[in-house]
Every structure is written in C-alpha cells, then in structure tokens.
Amino acid sequence: MFGTKVAEVRRMAQTKDQKMAAAAEAASKRSKGKKPMKDLKKYAVIAVSALVMLGAIYLAATDNAGGKKKSRDTYRSRASAQVNDRYFVSDVTSYAAGNFTAAASPFFNGWSYADVSYGLDGVGIRAEGMIGFSGALQRCPDEGEGLEGGAVPPSYDLRVQKPGCEAGPVYDQGNCSSSYAIAAATALSSRFCFSDPEAYAETHLSPQQIVSCDKKSAGCNGGGIDAVWSYIERRGLFPESCVPFAGAKSAACKSDCNQEQKRKALDHCLMGGEKRIKREMYNRGPVVIPVLLKDDFLVYKSGVYTPTDNANQQYGANGEPLVTAVTIMGWGRSEGTPYWLVKNSWGTQWGEEGYARIAIGTGAVREESAIVGYAATPEALEEDARKKEAAEKRREELKKERAERDARIREREEARAAEAAAKASSSDDEDLDFEDDEEVDIDSEESGDDP
Length: 451
Ligand SMILES: *[C@@H]1O[C@H](CO)[C@@H](O)[C@H](O)[C@H]1NC(C)=O
Ligand SMILES: *[C@@H]1O[C@H](CO)[C@@H](O)[C@H](O)[C@H]1NC(C)=O
Fold this sequence. Notes:
By secondary structure, the chain is α+β, with helices and mostly antiparallel strands. It folds into two domains: 2-63; 100-376, Cysteine proteinases (Cathepsin B, Chain A, Alpha-Beta Complex), CATH 3.90.70. The chain is built from twelve helices and nine strands. It has helices at residues 4-31, 36-62, 86-95, 113-119, 158-161, 179-195, 207-213, 228-235, 274-284, 295-298, 378-424, 428-449, and strands at residues 100-102, 156-157, 265-271, 288-292, 300-305, 323-334, 337-343, 355-359, 370-375. Strands 1, 2, 4, 5, 6, 7 and 8 form a seven-stranded mixed beta sheet that branches. Strands 3-9 form a two-stranded antiparallel sheet. It is elongated, with a radius of gyration of 31 Å. Bound molecules: 2-acetamido-2-deoxy-beta-D-glucopyranose (2 copies). One 2-acetamido-2-deoxy-beta-D-glucopyranose is lined by residues 96-97, 99, 306, 308, 337, 359, 362. It comes from Symbiodinium natans. Keywords: Membrane, Transmembrane, Transmembrane helix, Zymogen. Belongs to the peptidase C1 family. Residues 383-451 are annotated as: Disordered.
C-alpha cells in the first residue's frame, strides 16, 4: 500500500495533464492560420488544463498538510519530502524486519528527494561505444573458473587483512556527485598498498584531481565509473594531500607537487559475477561497483541491507535510475545472508561508520557491472611489457610465416606457368584440364595454412 495512493493520484493527474496538453497542442495545430474563434478555443483548453494542473498540485499539497494526520503513505513519492523524515526512517526499520536498521544521517540533513536527484546524479557506466569493441570498455580476461588459485575465503575484510590499505578515511562528497571519482581513487590507492603494503603503506590518491581536471567527466555533476579510468591511465593521480578534496566548493586543477608522486592505472575492464569479483579482489584488491539508489538505502544505518518490498528507486534529471559508485572492501555472511562490504562516500555517520554491508544477489549491488582498474605497479608494468613483447614477437613470427608461405605459393605458380607453357606446345586440351585440377589444390592448401 505504501505510497501507492499518491503515486496513483499523480499518475492520474499526469495522464490527465498529458491528455489536456495533447488536446491543446492538437487544437493549436488545427487553428493555425484559421479564424480567431479557434484561437479562443485554444485558450480555453489551455486555461482548463492549467486549472486541472493547479488542482492536482493543491490536492497533492493538502494531502499531507494541516498537521491533522501526517499520512505515512504519501511521503515517499514526493520530490519535496525529506530523506530523513522520521516517520519514513522508523517505517524502513520495521519493514526491514531485522535485516537492517535505518537512521537519519547528517549527510542527508535538509535533503529532499529533489536534492537527491540533483546531488547524486550523473554516475554510471559510460562505455564509449559498445562493450567489447576495440577502443571501448573491454571485459576482463577470464582467468579460468575452478583453478586452484581461485579459492577464496568465506569472509574477507580488507581493513583486517591489509591494515592501512583502506585508502584513507571515508569521504563526505556533500552536494557533489563525485562517487565515481572517489571510488576509483580509493580502489587504485588500495590496490597499490595491496600489492606491497610496505612500499605503498597508507597510499591515498586524490579524487579531487579527477573532479577538477578530467574534462571527460562532469566534475560534481557525475562521471562514468568506467571512463574515469582512461584519465587515470593517461595522467595518474597525485596523493590526496597534493589536491585535497573540496567537493562542491570546487577547486582549480593545479598542484605544486612533484609529478613523480603520481600513481597511474595500467588498464581497466568490466567484470561480472560474484565469484570472479571475489577472486579478483582477493588477488589484487578492491573493485568499483555501482549500487542502485532506493530511498531506503539512503537511511541505511546498520545490518545487512536488502531492499525492502516498498523501496522506491530514485531517478536523476534525465530519468535514468540513480546509482552511486562504491568500493568493494570485502564480503561475508551474517545469519545466513551473504553480503558485500562496501566503502561509501556519504560521511562516517552514514551506515556502519561510512561502510555498508549489502546482501549479495538482491540486485542492489550491480554484480554484473564491476569495474577493475589495474594498478601500474613496477611489477605490473614489467609483466605488461613482457606480455606486449611476447605479442609483438608473435606478430613478427606470423608476418614471417605469411611471407614465406606467399613466396612458396608464388614459386609454385611460376613453376606451373612454366610447365603449362611447355605443354601448350604439345596438346591444348590436356593442358586446360590439368590447370583446373591444380587450381583446386592450391586453394585448399592456402586455406589450410591460414585458419
Ligand atoms: C545542491 O546544489 C544545487 C545547485 O546549487 C542546489 O539547487 C541544491 O539545493 C543543493 N542541495 C543541497 C542539499 O544543498
Ligand atoms: C531479509 O533479507 C533476506 C536476504 O536478502 C531476504 O531474502 C528477505 O526477503 C529480507 N526480508 C525483508 C523483510 O526484506
């Protein structure tokens, strides 16, 4: 029943409005270039539709006003309603039935759902072109399921397993839709530390640099959780201290720090599937993943989040479902429910000190859309150079093989031409048959050589 009444009223009002608007438009088309009488009709239609709209707004407004009875059924679907509405918060806790508890957090103080549509907008996967095509977002290489190195423990918490590798404190992004930058910088920092906890202890790279400098992202208006890695691969990131987080206060793209302090990513790819994500994280460190934003997640406080039955997905300005990018920091199981441990960027007073546990396989975490950004550590660079060298060598070999084969074919053709010329002087008929047979031979040999 939750929220359905107002949603229905709105839907009806909307369709009514749409019908009226369509009628008005049709009327205006009809009246084009015709008598003023038609214009009068047009204005009448517009006036009526405006009245209907005002009526709908009045109904929606009075529905919740007057303090007589604060209807619990209505607050969720209204853009002006507060995220931290205390009736809503207590309802979420009861609807969650022990899975998780809800609470107001300072991050959303004073935020309406309209603020959510604005302040968390614009984050998502922005593959330039289609997935898998060259130059676009690539799927991560398959490392083979079921191999011995593929086993992962039933629970994992990077904060415990690799202390100091969690890439600094939890951010408070404020009214700056920068989760795409924060999650990427966090994952990359953590991966450097993961690869060598001594050499890269407490690595903490700057998301503000992305917000301020990456022209292909939209700064505080969001960015691609995949595309942002292209910038990190090209330019590298300074430490947080060189370009401190400024969020919505905006900051110039500059730093006095030494370029050598930068850390780069080597490559990035798309990964799907619980097992593969766990293995990747276990072997190389955190990945970035989108979480669908439903209203009940905004007030998550503790426990294992599973979207409640009545949860409403939130949408951005262009009608796209809102997601926020988080960094997966581990996994586990609580009272039989498997979960992801994620680091969010809504301050330390949201969730479990800024972290959340989210049930696996409920659709809240988009497990088919993890982004892996490989850290350009010296070892990874060396390995990459080795692979590139091997690939180059293979290319050279193939080129040589092809040249040799072409030479063989040419030789044979020349020999055959010479033979044919010799036979032409004895018998013409015999010669033609012979040549046809040979042609077939050459074709099959060629295709056999070149799979
Ligand atoms: C966020 O910024 C926008 C644009 O300046 C503003 O309209 C909105 O009210 C702000 N939201 C909050 C919660 O401060
Ligand atoms: C509690 O979480 C479990 C596991 O995700 C889920 O199956 C169940 O439906 C949830 N209960 C409620 C009331 O949402």
